[in-house]
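ok so dumb question maybe but i'm new to this and my supervisor (M.) told me to 'just get the structure for Cytochrome C' and walked off. so i did the thing. is this what she meant?? sequence i used:
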Amino acid sequence: MSIFVKRKSRDREKHEPDSDRQALQQSAEREFKRQFFGLLLVIVMWSLAMGWLLALATNAQSVTPTAEIGTVDVVPAQYQLGQELYLENCATCHIGIPPAVLPTQTWKNLLQDSQHYGAQLKPLVDPPRILVWKYLSTFSRVQLDDEETPYRLNNSRYFKALHPGVQLPRPVQIGSCVSCHPSASDYNFRRLTAEWQ
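this is what came out, is it supposed to look like this??
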């Protein structure tokens, strides 16, 4: 019987270190999981806070629905100088029209030609010409293969598409824009007269 007790106590001594190791391992696993989920929670909270701050900052800089954009398109910073040069060179003698009302090919031809609707103009030279071209080509539209290049607003299918149901004066002239767009001389085609709002 004493041999049996000794063997049992030896077996217990052998198993006790294993159970201690298992307990330590389980404790370490629990601690790792707790730290992992704690870190994950910190990352999620940080992301939410940064997203909220970014949204707040962006919202403060963006145009609110009640504020006017002014031009037809919101112009990214890399095209703003081109837009300014376009308006300086093209909106001093007449109202500057948005690039979207004529196809890209029309704008390209207008930039290259010194004859401008019966007037002799000094053509733009580089680098201003390149900046104006980047602005116009980015915001104008593609011309169809079978379409003639329009040089008058009333011949532009884009101009007609942008004015559905509008009885346009005959002939359409750039000065006619002011009758519906009172701020057209400020390059603001979003503000309309009361009859069109």
